Amino acid sequence: MPLCGGVRGKGKIFDMKILVTGAAGFIGSKLAESLIEDGQEVLVIDNLSTGKKDRVPAGARFVESCASSPEIIDAIFEFNADAIAHCGGAKQR
Ligand SMILES: NC(=O)c1ccc[n+]([C@@H]2O[C@H](COP(=O)([O-])OP(=O)(O)OC[C@H]3O[C@@H](n4cnc5c(N)ncnc54)[C@H](O)[C@@H]3O)[C@@H](O)[C@H]2O)c1
Predict the structure, then answer these.
(1) Does any ligand 1 atom lie closer than 6 A to the CB of residue 46?
(2) Hey, which end of the chain has fewer CB within 10 Å, N or C?
(3) What is the whole-number distance in angstroms between the Cα of residue 54 and the centre of ligand 1?
(4) C-alpha to C-alpha distance for 93 and 75, rounded to whole angstroms
(5) pLDDT in tens, 4-48
(6) pTM for this one?
């Protein structure tokens, strides 16, 4: 289901670059999939600690890394995201 396209009921109104952490997991992958369906550009950062690479939707750029790693700062600035959805994290037990 498109997330942004129906905001004003007249089709897509945003062209956004969105960084989604944890998009090899349950919530992040669904969010990233919807954003891509909606035509947004998506960068995924996931360390695959619990996620699965095949859940990262086709069409997303994927960097396998911890979201807090200093090594990915260049990739984040290069992508120049308009928004960040931080879904990467460990579930409480
Ligand atoms: N699923 C729910 O019902 C629910 C409800 C409330 C809160 N949450 C929280 O939302 C977050 C996502 O939930 P989920 O169900 O999608 O979990 P999930 O385990 O399916 O997905 C989490 C993803 O984050 C990745 N990840 C973990 N640590 C990371 C790190 N440091 N850097 C990059 N990637 C990292 C994992 O590899 C995985 O792909 C969790 O923090 C969870 O506690 C989930």
Answers:
(1) yes
(2) C
(3) 16
(4) 32
(5) 544 444 455 568 999 999 999 999 999 999 999 999 999 999 999
(6) 0.89
Quote the CA–CA distance of 43 and 46 in Å, as a whole number. Answer: 10
Distance of alpha carbon 39 from alpha carbon 33, whole angstroms = 10
Look-up: residue for tokens 């396209």? 5
CA distances from 76 to 12, 18, 30, 66, 70 (A): 25, 10, 21, 12, 10
* 80 Cβ inside 6 Å of ligand 1: no
Whole-number Å distance between alpha carbons of 35 and 69: 25
Evaluate whether 5 touches 11 at the Cβ level (below 8 Å). yes
Q: Which pair of structure tokens corresponds to residue 10?
A: 């007249």
| 80 CA from centroid of ligand 1 (Å) | 23
**Cβ–ligand 1 contact at 51 (below 6 Å):** yes
